[in-house]
């Protein structure tokens, strides 16, 4: 669906078939940033990613079979699944987990709020999804809010280690995720059952994850702490199997640029969870950033679409 055109029918922001999955995805992904921090202490980051999708893959195939979706996706479908697996389920998560070795999870989460920028640009370039003035204005307001949040995170969590490397890794994760977000909505992807495409994509992504983990970190390390495996299960089942079919469907319904605004809501939810679990201290800067981010998201989501 082409993204946004000024004279067309307004998008119903509160339409339940969009609003409910949008909110559910944000709620779950908002929790994953906190969970990930416990996944990179016990084992190398690459193996943590590999375990996550080794568990998610059979569950995603089970979902496809339960939904009675054909697993036959054809040659073009497998090629697309390889690309999505490489970018989304390998590159994106390997970049993110490694970035959190150098930056706080809050900083990485806030940076991912800017996903709407590459999504909108790639959506325009690859899918012909046009961008209106209202969308650009909303994006500018949201990015200003994200900048305030990033400044706040930098102040309360002094950055140590190789900050530049952490930033570059986070940017790599953003670009990888954006490529996957957009290409899955192309003509080939739209013709395939979502669950089947994601199952094959996760399978290929897991193969890449294991290859990278074994190459960079050596043989697998299996922690004994139940908390690690509980976190892995949450990230695999809720954070991947439940959310990705919903999120990719949202991309197809409202366009890649606006779907990425889910990341702004994720930031706010992650901060609220941190407030309850970790005693996160709000400031005027953080509050202003959250308000601007949400206001920009609402403005952009209400832009008109074809």
In brief:
75% of the residues lie in helices and 0% in strands.
How would you characterize the overall build of this protein?
With 306 residues, the chain is mainly α. Helix content is 75%, strand content 0%. The protein contains 13 helices and no strands. The protein has helices at 16-36, 45-66, 74-99, 105-112, 116-127, 133-156, 163-183, 187-190, 194-217, 226-254, 256-259, 262-277, 284-301. The longest helix is centred in the C-terminal third of the chain and has 29 residues, at 226-254. It starts with 15 loop residues before the first helix and ends in a 5-residue tail after the last helix.
Unreliable residue runs: 1-10
| Number of alpha- plus pi-helical segments | 13
Shape: globular
Radius of gyration, CA atoms, in whole angstroms: 19 Å
Q: Work out the oligomeric state of the chains in this entry.
A: single chain
**What is the succession of H and E elements?**
HHHHHHHHHHHHH
Question: How much strand content do the residues show?
Answer: under 5%
Approximately how much helix is present in the residues? over 70%
* Distance between the amino and carboxyl termini: 7 Å
Number of beta-strand segments: 0
Task: Return the average pLDDT rounded to an integer.
Answer: 83
SSE-based structural type: mainly alpha
Largest sheet: none
Architecture blueprint of SSEs:
Elements lengths: L15 H21 L8 H22 L7 H26 L5 H8 L3 H12 L5 H24 L6 H21 L3 H4 L3 H24 L8 H29 L1 H4 L2 H16 L6 H18 L5
Helix pairs in contact: 1-10, 1-12, 2-3, 2-9, 2-10, 3-7, 3-9, 4-6, 4-12, 5-7, 6-13, 12-13
């Amino acid at each position: 669906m082409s993204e946004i055109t000024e004279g067309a029918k307004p998008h119903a922001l509160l339409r339940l078939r969009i609003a409910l999955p949008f909110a559910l995805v944000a709620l779950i992904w908002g929790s994953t940033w906190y969970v990930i921090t416990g996944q990179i202490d016990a084992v190398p980051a690459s193996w943590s990613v590999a375990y996550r999708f080794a568990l998610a893959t059979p569950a995603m195939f089970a979902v496809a079979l339960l939904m009675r979706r054909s697993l036959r996706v054809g040659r073009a479908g497998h090629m697309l699944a390889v690309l999505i697996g490489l970018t989304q389920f390998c590159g994106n998560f390997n970049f993110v987990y490694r970035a959190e070795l150098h930056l706080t999870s809050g900083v990485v989460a806030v940076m991912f709020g800017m996903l709407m920028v590459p999504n909108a640009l790639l959506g325009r370039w690859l899918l012909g999804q046009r961008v209106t003035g209202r969308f650009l204005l909303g994006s500018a307001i949201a990015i200003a809010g994200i900048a305030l949040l990033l400044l706040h995170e930098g102040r309360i969590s002094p950055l140590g280690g190789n900050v530049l490397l952490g930033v570059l890794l986070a940017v790599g994760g953003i670009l990888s995720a954006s490529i996957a977000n957009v290409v899955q909505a192309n003509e080939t992807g739209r013709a395939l059952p979502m669950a089947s495409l994601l199952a094959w994509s996760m399978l290929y992504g897991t193969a890449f994850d294991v290859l990278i983990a074994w190459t960079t970190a050596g043989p697998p390390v299996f922690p004994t702490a139940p908390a690690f495996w509980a976190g892995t299960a949450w990230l695999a089942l809720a954070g991947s199997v439940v959310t990705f079919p919903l999120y990719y469907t949202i991309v197809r319904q409202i366009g890649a640029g606006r779907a990425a605004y889910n990341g702004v809501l994720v930031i706010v939810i992650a901060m609220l969870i941190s407030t309850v679990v970790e005693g996160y201290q709000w400031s005027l800067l953080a509050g202003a950033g959250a308000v601007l981010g949400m206001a920009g998201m609402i403005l952009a989501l209400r832009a008109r679409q074809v």
